[in-house]
Amino acid sequence: MADQNHWWIVAGADESHRKINPFGHACLFARKATPDSQNFDVYTVIDWEALVILPKHIAFKGDNGNYLSAQSMDGHPYLQFSATDPTDPKVENEVFIAGDQSVRIKSTHTQNFRRRNTSPDNSINNWISADSNDTANKNSDKHQRRQCRCSSSQPGQQQFLQEVD
Questions:
Q1: How far apart are CA 125 and CA 118, in angstroms?
Q2: Closest Cα to residue 162, out of 146, 150, 145, 144?
Q3: Domains of the chain (ranges plus CATH)?
Q4: CA–CA dist 157, 17 (Å, integer)
Q5: Which residues make beta-bridge pairs with 70?
Q6: What is the pLDDT of residues 40-91, one digit of tens each?
């Protein structure tokens, strides 16, 4: 937190200083020692080059060359990299962007969202199930509300979804 001797400083520029007059394009101002209660005077810098827009329908291909598909064992849905045909209906997923900008993925086969599946004793917590019908993304279990961010090493290259705490 800021104290009496520290200030929040925000700087902005429309263009790189190398291209235009160094005194007419930039803005710098200091505000109170603490941001306002809604953080309206605090900004987040976004690297637009790093943003990835996912298509509405996606499939995931594993290191084994197979596609992630919805399966069922003893009446419990789960996901497995076992399908060899990318047009298999069990492979298709739909992407939803939640209001908090987290990515939610819904199996078009099960018509349910994915969630991280944890065992009651937390001994097994790495399964991803496609069995959540929580459409509001408000499940109180933090493991079921994990966000994903998408990144790419190069534009047009493979995309990677990473769980974010």
A1: 4
A2: 150
A3: 1-45 (no CATH), 50-164 (2.80.10.50)
A4: 32
A5: 79
A6: 555 666 666 666 677 888 888 888 889 988 888 787 777 888 999 989 999 9
Give how far Cα 19 sits from Cα of 23, 53, 133, Å: 12, 30, 52
Q: How far is CA 85 from CA 33, 55, 68, 129, 161, in A?
A: 59, 19, 10, 21, 22
User: Which DSSP state fits 75?
Assistant: T
Contacts of 66 (CB under 8 A, 6+ apart): 81, 82, 83, 84
Task: Calculate the CA 58 to chain-centre distance.
Answer: 15
Stated pTM of the model:
0.54
Nearest to 148 by CA among 91, 102, 79, 93: 102
Q: Maximum Cα–Cα distance for the chain, whole Å?
A: 69
- The 3-state secondary structure of 88-110 reads CCCCCEEEEECCCCCEEEEECCC
Residues in the chain: 165
Bridge partner list, 10: 29
CA dist 57 to 29, 87, 92, Å? Answer: 44, 12, 7
